[in-house]
Amino acid sequence: MKKVIVACGSGVATSQTVASKVSRLLKEQGISDIKVEVIDLKSVDTHIKDSAAYIAITKVDKPYPIPVINGIAFLTGFNMDQELQKMIAACR
Length: 92
Prior knowledge:
By secondary structure, this protein is α/β, with parallel strands linked by helices. The chain has four helices and four strands; from the N terminus they run E-H-E-H-E-E-H-H. The longest helix is centred in the N-terminal third of the chain and has 15 residues, at 14-28. The protein is globular.
């Protein structure tokens, strides 16, 4: 099972909302082998090693070895399908 992390400042509010939406979208597409995990920004470096993609709620200036997905797309709906497909491709 692949893991995708979603991070916001506290790992409690915005990231939880995005993670719930991404999990629902994956379920609607019949994808059950991707685990969406909520973390806080301070924990990104710890979790990045065993994750297939990182859904960022905030602007990311640091390069990461895995795809960084625009988490705002899941809040606004703008380019959401494109970001979801990018995340699914990263997990394959």
